Amino acid sequence: MPMTRRQLVWGGAGLSAALAVPAVQHMAWGRRDFARPGYDPFAPDLPGRASWMNWSGSQRATPVAIDFPDSEANLADLVAGTPHRIRPVGSGHSFSALVPSAGRIVDVSALSGLYGYDPATGEARFGAGTRLFEVARSLNELGRALPNLPDIDVQTLAGSFATGTHGTGNRLSALHDYVTAFRMVTARGEILDINAEQAPDLFQAGKVSLGALGLMTEFTLKTVPAFRLRRQMTIEPVGPFLERIEALGEAHRNFEFFYSPGTGLVAWLVHDIAEGPVTDRGESEDEDFLAGLKDLRDTFGWFPWLRRQIAGMAFPRGTVEDVVDDSFALLSTTRPTRFNEMEYHLPRAEGVATLRRVIAMLDRRQDAFFPLEYRHVAADSAWLSPFQGGPRASIAIHAAVDEHFDYFFDAFEPVYRAVGGRPHWGKLNRLDQAGAASLYPDFNRFRALRRDLDPDGKFLNPYLASLFGEAFDA
Ligand SMILES: Cc1cc2nc3c(=O)[nH]c(=O)nc-3n(C[C@H](O)[C@H](O)[C@H](O)COP(=O)(O)OP(=O)(O)OC[C@H]3O[C@@H](n4cnc5c(N)ncnc54)[C@H](O)[C@@H]3O)c2cc1C
Description:
Bound molecules: flavin-adenine dinucleotide
Structural class: alpha+beta
Number of helices: 16
Number of strands: 21
Helix content: 25-40%
Largest sheet: 9 strands, mixed
Strand content: 15-25%
């Protein structure tokens, strides 16, 4: 792996001693507190009240109740019978305000597992609450796989599709593009069975729905024969690398990279179809690497030149990983270190020029240390898909969970919006109704369909009411 924490600290100590760094500036930086005031790692604790927070703690709620219906019929009864508003939740891995509700939060994780598989078409039916890793393992037992996966695989199918969750690859579309049919409970408690032929509008709207059209209970998905991948990771200076992004994206099945602010170096990853035995990979050192980047920021962030030199000494160069495994075992990993994130999907032609700006802006921010992630996603046709109408280049920036992220909105979001960027619906953004209508040709069709299905706003919360231009009183 690229760089261990110990290598960084040793490298840093050695170089700073050699340079006899100015002690006053060093000490002033060392006293700096990066913590965000008010950060609380725990969910609200109100005796006798249900409470909920998302993975990063940036969204919180104290609803009337959190419900766990154990069948589609019970879910339909709950929706029809309750006077409260309802928001569905998956695994709570969205950063945006899609889930919080003062009404009821409904978790469909009991509607989970493989419901059926048709060998003639390769289509598989799953409960909407099935997590991606369960989908991948069930399909693997049938000799099948999903074509692509995101960075992690604990999200539910319903949650992933609702926000346009994606992996990377020039010829690979986002996950909702695998959906061929779905079942959902409407605000009136009816159960609808939807596919492209019988309800084309609802099908294109429902694939990326923000959980605003109904409660999904089941999905039918296209699958492909199970496959293995070879992963190669390479570390090199960012300057010359930027010229090769388009070629690398074209040449490899999956292509992405990470840029660590203040280091001048990228770690790029490709996955390609492979045969052969699985490679023993040992323990991941990703967390150690991240801790090393934080140490580097904490200690040498005040002196960008020195920080870059130390990173340059401590990182290895060239190919640092070359392994083979089943597709699902390589495409998704775990992310134990929590963060907050903004990701924008830019028209592909704007990707590299915008990336250059964003890297320069991150490098100027001496407090940034979390790596930026850059990916490619192919087009699809869902009405609210960020990839509707053409392929996109995705830039994601992150901040440690207990640190400031207000600069995402003030400094970075305007850069993305200026080139027609669309935000990941599940990540931090301030896109409003007018902005969404200007970015999505079918946004107002979606609004009209939502209003037809849910005229009383049963599935609204304050964020969705504002986005869709609906009145909202608690
Ligand atoms: C560590 C981490 C890594 C990530 N990596 C990626 C990545 O690589 N690529 C990417 O694109 N995104 C990524 N994400 C974002 C994540 O995939 C999305 O936010 C996704 O929507 C989360 O799914 P979830 O099951 O947690 O759903 P939640 O966040 O709980 O909900 C998401 C939406 O789905 C709706 N919903 C949930 N269940 C239902 C239902 N039954 N019916 C109708 N609507 C429903 C909710 O109301 C909400 O609107 C990452 C997030 C984290 C925290």
